[in-house]
Write a structure and sequence with these properties.
The chain is mainly α. It has helices at about 15-35, 45-50, 60-70, 75-85, 90, 95-120, 125-130, 135-165, 175-195, 200-225, 230-240, 260-275, 280-285, 290-300, 300-320, 335-345, 350-385, 390-415, 425-435, 435-440, 450-470, 495-520, 540-555, and strands at about 485, 495. Helix content is about 70%, strand content about 0%. The chain has a two-stranded antiparallel ribbon with strand order 1-2.
């Protein structure tokens, strides 16, 4: 990261912007509580209703929900901040990543929806358990999902903190500085607990409307204020070529060089493969009413990728505008660059609208992520290992409580990890969650892999990825987990750690499968059949299965 000279702390409060932000924030909070009554079911006391919205969302609701789920504070804070500080390799890879993503999910996600619908699966670990007959492998998948979700939720809270800090809330002491996080946590926790997945589904409509409004205005208005796009690109190129005084290397990459191709490509591909392994992505998908809804959304969601590309370039607009992202404590913080750009360049009232777009853009995914992590704990740890005879009502109650704990643990990430490069929060989660890809995605097509081989491969990928990521030290702050790139063994190029860990995972799983199959080690029972992967809404086998499931869970005759 280029060195930014600390400036005096800006302690002024932008009253107009803050009032607009608070009013819109309170509006969506109220909508979050009202969502309990939206498409109200007879009871919210089941994971199907509280955690999946009754599995009844159509194309447009699912589109807004997935958009709200996938385009997060990572998009609106971390990506342009990375562009501002480090350039194209660290920031703009997110654009091809989302382009590559949708063909991937078009191929496999409808199969996961069908088999989950047929068997009443709520989480990816539910599918793994049913497919491989292995509680141990399912436990590994569920723990990985929860762990990987923590830094991702933390990133959302960083986004909320950034806009509140630029608006003037906070201070130099620890309590005042982190108070906005606790306020956001309390509001988010309250309406998520009350309304479940319906809350972010309702709020997503407002969030997306605000975001499209702000981005369209920003990409037209802001470049015109700083001399046009030619001047923007010229300023960005000059900054990225300037040597960093800490490392004595160029500040960043304006256009990736041939030495950076592996890093750029592996970040894009690895992130695309990882995104729909997260519990929150799968939760939003399973809430849709039929399998064609998934395919339609895979076709129209790239509209968000266009917006992402424009938003990423605002990081370079900030370079030309001379934006100084200085926190209230007087220290430079690149994560503040977009809120600060908005405050510097927009009228106060519209800056408030822009702040609200970023803050609400963090609330929606944070709510879905905490619900998904809670569902995973409830189904795959509480029910599978602690209380096998838990009723639907007990599952829902535990999930609500765990959703609060998940947010609390996410706060730990925010308070303990280096926030200067918050994009690493998402990339760190990607290193972990990508190790679940073989068990989930390959399992949708084949039972060739042995369950124990998948478990050992997962462990190898997790250990290698975590240790390698820990050993990446930020040269400026000397903090561990300071990046997501490391040298690829035998290739000698820098690449995304997640992809290297995934390669080791896959090699170990394949070799061990051959060994274990030769030794005729028990492969476990597969409760799925070929037709399960093509089931759709209204399939009579689904109704029969769900009735049986209710009887077994509640003990009714």
């Amino acid at each position: 990261m280029s060195a930014m000279v600390p400036a005096a702390a800006n302690t002024g409060v932008n009253t107009t912007a803050l009032v607009v932000l608070i009013l819109l924030f309170l509006l969506v909070t109220g909508m979050g509580f009202w969502a309990t009554r939206w498409r109200k079911a007879d009871s919210m006391e089941s994971l199907d209703e509280w955690g999946l919205g009754g599995r009844r969302f159509g194309t447009w609701v699912t589109w807004f929900l997935l958009g709200g789920d996938l385009y997060t504070a990572y998009t609106f804070v971390a990506v342009p901040a990375a562009m501002f500080a480090l350039g194209a390799v660290s920031g703009f890879f997110a654009v091809p990543y989302t382009i590559v993503l949708y063909p991937i999910i078009f191929i496999f996600m409808s199969r996961l929806w069908s088999v989950s619908h047929r068997h009443g699966y709520v989480t990816p670990a539910d599918f793994v358990k049913g497919r491989y007959g292995s509680r141990g492998l399912a436990l590994a998948i569920s723990l990985t999902g929860i762990l990987a979700t923590m830094p991702y939720i933390a990133l959302q809270l960083v986004g909320i903190q950034a806009v509140l800090e630029v608006a003037g809330l906070g201070g130099s002491n620890a309590l005042a500085k982190d108070l906005p996080l606790f306020i956001a946590f309390a509001l988010l926790a309250a309406y998520t607990y009350s309304s479940g997945l319906r809350a972010p589904a309702v709020i997503a409509f407002v969030k997306d409307a605000l975001i499209y409004l702000v981005i369209i205005v920003a990409v037209i208005y802001l470049p015109s204020k700083v001399g046009g796009w030619d001047a923007v690109f010229g300023a960005a190129e000059a900054k990225m070529a300037k040597p960093n005084p800490v490392t004595n290397k160029p500040t960043g990459a304006f256009i990736p060089s041939s030495q950076q191709y592996w890093a750029y490509a592996s970040l894009a591909l690895g992130s695309a493969m990882a995104l729909f392994m997260y519990p929150h992505s799968i939760t939003a998908t399973l809430s849709s009413q039929n399998r064609n809804t998934i395919r339609r959304n895979a076709s129209i969601l790239p509209a968000y990728s266009f917006v992402l590309g424009l938003l990423a370039l605002l990081g370079w607009v900030a370079i030309k505008a001379g934006t100084k992202p200085i926190g209230l404590d007087g220290k430079p913080n690149a994560q503040l660059v977009i809120p600060q750009l908005f405050e510097d360049m927009f009228p106060s009232w519209f800056a408030g609208v822009a702040f609200a777009a970023v803050a609400i853009g963090a609330l929606v995914p944070a709510a879905i992520m905490s619900i998904a992590a809670a569902n995973t704990f409830t189904r795959n740890i509480y029910r599978d290992w602690l209380k096998p005879n838990a009723t639907h009502a007990q599952e829902a109650k535990v999930s609500k409580l765990v959703s609060l704990l998940v947010k609390a643990f996410a706060l730990v990430f925010v308070l303990t990890l280096d926030k200067q490069n918050a994009i690493n929060f998402q990339l760190l989660g990607g290193i972990w969650i990508l190790q679940t890809f073989p068990a989930i995605v390959f399992g949708l097509y084949t039972r060739w892999f042995h369950r124990w081989a998948l478990l050992v491969g997962w462990a190898v990928g997790m250990v290698y990825g975590t240790i390698t990521a820990y050993n990446v030290v930020n040269p400026a702050t000397k903090a561990h987990f300071g990046g997501s790139l490391a040298m690829i063994p035998s290739i000698g190029k820098m690449g995304y750690i997640a992809m290297t860990a995934f390669a080791f995972n896959l090699i170990v799983a394949a070799v061990l499968t051959l060994v274990l199959n030769a030794l005729k080690v028990d492969r476990g029972h597969d409760e799925t059949i070929k037709g399960d992967y093509f089931a759709d809404a209204g399939d009579p086998r689904v109704e029969k299965h769900l009735e049986t499931d209710v009887h077994l869970t509640t003990g009714s005759p």
